[in-house]
Amino acid sequence: MKKKTTTNWTVTFFLFLFLLFFLIVSFRVIYIQATGQVQGFDLEGWATQQREADTTIHATRGTIVDRNGMALAQDLTVHRIYAIVDEDFSPDPEKRLNHVADIDQTAESLSQILEMDTVKIKEILIEGRENERFQVEFGQTGQNLSREQKLAIEALELPGIHFIDEAKRYYPNGMFASHVIGLAQADDTHDITGITGIEAQLDDQLAGINGSITYQTDNYNRRLLAANEVIEEKKDGYHVKLTIDQKVQTILEDALSQVEETFEPERITATVVNPKTGEIIALGNRPSYNPNDLEDVSNWYNDVVSTPIEPGSTMKIFTLAAAIEEGVYNPDEYYKSGTYKIPEINRPVPDYRKHWGSITFAEGFQRSSNVAMAKLVWEKIGPSTFLNYLKAFHFDQETGVDLPREQAGRIVFNYPIEQLNAAFGQGTTVSPIQLIQAATAIANDGEMMKPFVIKEITDPNTNKVISNTEPTSVGTPISKSTADQVLSAMESVVTSDTGTAHNIFHLPSYTLAGKTGTAQISGGASGYLSGRENYIFSFVGMAPSDDPKLLMYVTVKQPKLKETESGSKPVSFIFNHVMENALHYLNIQPDKEIEEDVSELIMPAVKKQATAEVVENLEGHGVKPLVVGEGSEIVGSNVQMGEKILSTQTIILVTNQPTMPNLKGESLRTVTQFADLMDLDLEVAGTGYLEKQSVAIGTELSEGHYLLADFTDFEAEEPETPTAND
């Protein structure tokens, strides 16, 4: 009886334990079902995450355009190829293959389009399968594929081959205002980030905000019918409009490249501004770089804003302005040129030539006499007053130009010799942009304008203007009367037989006011380098001289010169070529009679006109047009009726039977204009001049026709400029 009681108690105890365990487990299951958590771990979130796919919708980076809306930097869609090698991704291979089953065929088919060795492709596919990887890629060769390559591969219908669309920052004009526009590249997450220039300066505004799509998938990563899709919209980056003019910049870039090729200088800077507003119309440096191809970049710096230099004799403009403003300048007063010695200095200030004798101050400015400027500062203006003028022209501070890494020069003015040297641009340093800002006061009735390059920022999501830059006056260091007198003196530097710019700097259609500069370079045993090439040769010029519409400053450092060449030769080629063409392009009225060797024409009416008659008329004025097709009537052109055209321009005439012309040797600008006229789907590769076109000559053209234009850089021709004497 006792044994039976013990047994019942034991059974009851274990039954109680079982029921207790069952209740605990049941409660735990109910709790997990209710809360979806285990020890703080979110099971429901984990399960949802396992079923969900999350795709990033990359925001389109804002486009950078010139003042007329021409794209200078934009996102370009490229493609990355990948191959699925996991056999499990094809659950029913008899019906449909979703992975690469035939490695040999796939490798052989891809090799020609990717321009990749067949054996290498096979190795990648086999290695991926052996390592039980789901998918494989093909390195750099499989990235940045063009749409033409993608379409060619898709036409092969290879199982398991797929593409990812990506954005690549593309610069349609190649090496074009590269130090202004800057560089942006994709990072590891395929987001594009600004690195230099405006791309870096306005990276936050250009970048935009990525969106996303979240949806549920099955075990094979296929989208479910009831996918519970959640979309977070992207916000595209802001568009940035610059003050740069694409056509003027192109003229400038061509001139810089020719001088770089011919004279092999260490550095070149050139800047064109509107002195009435401060807008930078064109800006270029050499060495430069092509942001589409970053091989052998030797200069990332925008020297115009980041590299102060001793300006040399261009500084005499502001010394003269100070003397006139103070009322102590008499252009007809004589002084003895050659050397100038005061007790406070050990060695006299020399002129670069010592045999002029007694000349007027007016002639001294024309001849670029150091002695004339030193005497004005020491005996007429007074050093302390002159220092005040240097500060009034803001040579002691940055301009605040809206470009990164601005570096101001330094006024060196502690000792008498430094005060005299500052009068003619030695010792004291300025950045080119500082000198340009100061020179706007001369060209703008004494009012100094702050230079700027960002014209407008627009939100493409709302089409609202976020900000725009208005012209800003930063001071009036001199009066209008003084500015007019300085302009007259600068014009005499160009026109007078004794002027240093005479017969060197010359515009056929416009009067010109300017000042040459030859600055020593620090670094020799005596403080400066020696030798006829070891200088920074420069010129600041304004035209038309009575009311300047454009101001340009050019510097060329250490060019390689022939015995018969002066340092003004490379500088004058850049200035003369760019300034003359820019003024014509901007429809500035010439104030000189056009010379016989300059061909200028007002574009006649061409639409609905007979093709033969239009061509004959243009060729009669020295213009050889590019005729599209063999139709009897003209239906369109890249130049509007009434516009001024030069003999160097390419005039495109579209006939009523358009066919593909031979564009080989044409510039990117011409090809782009042609594609716009014909509404073609243009894809560009390379830079320079057209080498290959994907559409055969004579092919009938229609709207949306795809054209791949392959450009290459030809050697620049040697510029033809007159030999100048020192």
From TrEMBL:
PROSITE patterns listed in its UniProt record: PASTA
Listed pathway(s): Cell wall biogenesis; peptidoglycan biosynthesis
CDD domains on file: PASTA_Pbp2x-like_2 (cd06575)
Gene Ontology CC terms: plasma membrane
EC number annotated for this UniProt entry: 3.4.16.4
Keyword Membrane: yes
Catalytic activity: Preferential cleavage: (Ac)2-L-Lys-D-Ala-|-D-Ala. Also transpeptidation of peptidyl-alanyl moieties that are N-acyl substituents of D-alanine
Family indicated by similarity: Belongs to the transpeptidase family.
Name the record gives this protein: serine-type D-Ala-D-Ala carboxypeptidase
Transmembrane segments: none
MF GO annotations: penicillin binding; serine-type D-Ala-D-Ala carboxypeptidase activity
One Pfam family it belongs to: PBP_dimer
Domain PASTA: 597-657
Broad class of enzyme this protein falls into: hydrolase
Source organism superkingdom: Bacteria
Source organism: Streptohalobacillus salinus
GO biological process assignments: cell wall organization; peptidoglycan biosynthetic process
Keyword terms of this UniProt record: Membrane
Lineage, highest ranks first: Bacteria, Bacillati, Bacillota, Bacilli, Bacillales
Subcellular location per the Swiss-Prot or TrEMBL entry: Membrane
